[in-house]
Design brief:
Layout (H helix, E strand, L loop, with lengths): L1 E5 L3 H13 L4 E6 L11 H5 L14 H6 L2 E5 L1 E7 L4 E6 L5 E5 L2 E4 L3 E3 L12 E2 L4 H13 L2 E5 L3 H12 L3 E6 L11 H13 L2 E5 L3 E7 L1 E7 L2 E4 L2 E4 L3 E3 L2 H5 L23 E3 L6 E2 L6 E2 L4 H15 L13 E5 L2 E7 L2 H6 L4 E9 L10 E9 L5 E8 L8 H8 L5 H6 L14 H9 L1
Helix pairs in contact: 1-8
The chain binds flavin-adenine dinucleotide.
The site of flavin-adenine dinucleotide (FAD) has 33 residues, from helix 1, strand 2, helix 2, strand 4 and helix 8.
Length: 443
């Protein structure tokens, strides 16, 4: 059995490790077009911000360590074609320029996503960056060193994490967002405002409702031209979204879903026999809406990879789907969400209602206690939980979101949440935790 994996980060490496463990006799080979495998891209903003010492710290396992475990890893090898009928891939060795044909019995596409680069961002100007992988991070780091004024384009979680990181490095930061508020796709408007306020308290100049038209500069970028005027900047980071890398899938005759990502079943199998797909390039089932979604995040990517690995090696594992859980930090605030926001629920014509509770995360009398806001959303009538959004002044306090995430996967109700026997001691929560208070109000 020869298992070929395309892409060597979260999904690809989880799959390779699992397949090799499940079936030690299988020959598992990973082709990665970049230089690094098995690293945590999620840590990139924290290296830029100085909270993590080096990009090397993000690497969980080197190719040599993977080879010692019996997994063939070939970096700087790009898969340029798939012949699913013949069971072969075409591989370009980027170092030598040589092309070879490699056979497979099972193939995994774990090709991830690429950052969206609007036309104005396709430039040779120095100082213009995206952030997806370690080389992007190294290039950004080199630019940060000589820069004074940064402009971050995009108010999603990566843009927000970078704005904070660049402030920590002493740069002035302007954050441009096309939509009416930051974190627009994560939170309801009431909570977006709180995030924007925190960015401003952190010294970020936030400008929403602004469209970028182009860049200025010769050799190096000097500014961002917008419909609201020129923003002077000697460093520009473009964080306006990602698109799934599906070219190989298309070439192999693999079906894409409505989201534009690869369509798979719960075993991570595509419509082409023997070809699997996992990670950011792949759709998943949303367990609340039962619709197919494309939510490119770390845990689902690892989990899909694990499932694909077991199945490619002859086992029977299933990916349960996602509930859209996400979390990030912006300066002093922790921000988390799971399930649907009220806005998203209404867009889906669900009969949704939300309650807001602002309280303290620990017992009010305890010195460690800080404010926390919970917005809990449920379905009128049935009481079924639909989602939760949390903003807390102790970052860790919003990890409570996991309680709701676990219930959402089981179609739990507000009553189920209210009945949960949560842990309590004054330095951790109030006796009636803010989640219980919100559940009580919702049911
Ligand atoms: P990727 O990590 O994109 O890896 C795909 C790999 O495939 C790439 O290395 C690519 O070079 C390779 N490849 C593509 N095509 C080919 C080819 N033809 N031949 C060979 N190789 C190929 N997620 C969270 O859950 N929480 C976070 O806090 C978080 N923060 C993030 C911060 C940043 C800055 C970034 C960039 C991402 C963050 N993520 C976060 C997302 C998380 O990193 C991804 O969900 C995860 O990396 C997806 O893994 P993957 O293996 O599916 O894809």
């Amino acid at each position: 059995m020869r298992i070929v994996v395309v892409g060597g980060v979260a999904a690809g490496m989880s799959a390779a490790s699992r397949a090799q463990r499940f079936s030690p006799d299988a020959r598992v080979v990973v082709f990665e077009r970049g230089e690094y495998v098995s690293y945590g891209a999620c840590g990139l903003p924290y290296v830029i911000g100085g909270e993590v010492d080096s990009f090397g710290d993000l690497v969980a396992r080197t190719p040599e360590q993977m080879r010692a475990r019996g997994i063939g890893v070939r970096v700087r090898h790009e898969v340029t074609g798939v012949d699913a009928r013949a069971g072969t891939v075409t591989v370009l060795d980027r170092a030598s320029g040589r092309t070879t044909t490699e056979p497979f019995d099972r193939l995994l596409l774990a090709t991830g996503v690429s950052p969206v680069r609007p036309d104005w961002a396709r430039t040779d100007l120095e100082g213009v960056h995206v952030l997806r992988d370690i080389p992007d991070g190294e290039a950004l780091e080199a630019s940060v060193r000589g820069a004074r004024r940064a402009c971050v384009v995009g108010g999603g979680y990566i843009g927000l994490e970078l704005a904070e990181a660049l402030r920590a490095r002493g740069l002035s930061v302007v954050l441009l967002e096309k939509g009416p508020e930051v974190a627009g796709r994560m939170l309801d408007p009431q909570l977006q405002v709180q995030v924007r306020g925190e960015l401003e308290r952190g010294g970020v100049d936030v400008r929403c409702g602004v469209t970028v038209q182009g860049l200025t500069g010769r050799g190096r970028v000097t500014g961002v031209q917008t419909d609201a005027g020129l923003v002077r900047a000697d460093l520009v980071v473009v964080a306006v979204g990602v698109k799934p890398n599906v070219e190989l899938a298309r070439a192999a005759g693999v079906r894409l879903g409505k989201t534009g990502a690869v369509a798979v079943n719960a075993r991570q199998e595509t419509n082409v026999p023997g070809v699997y797909s996992a990670g950011d390039n792949t759709e998943s089932l949303h367990r609340v809406t039962r619709r197919r979604v494309h939510i490119p995040l770390g845990l689902p990517a690892n989990r899909m990879g694990r499932v694909a690995g077991v199945n490619m090696a002859g086992g029977n594992a299933r990916f349960p789907g996602v509930v859209g859980t996400g979390i990030f930090r912006t300066f002093e605030l922790g921000v988390a969400r799971t399930g649907l926001t009220q806005t998203e629920a209404e867009e889906l014509d669900l009969n949704a209602v939300s309650v807001d509770v602002t309280s303290t995360d620990h017992a009010g009398y305890h010195g460690s206690s800080r404010p926390i806001h919970v917005r809990l959303t449920g379905e009128r009538g049935s009481g079924r939980l639909l989602g939760a959004q949390l903003i807390g002044h102790n970052h860790l306090s919003v990890k409570r979101v996991d309680v709701v995430a676990a219930l959402l996967g089981r179609r739990g109700t507000a009553q189920d949440l209210f009945d949960a026997d949560l842990a309590y001691a004054p330095p951790f929560s109030g006796v009636w935790d803010v989640l219980l208070v919100a559940a009580d109000r919702l049911h």
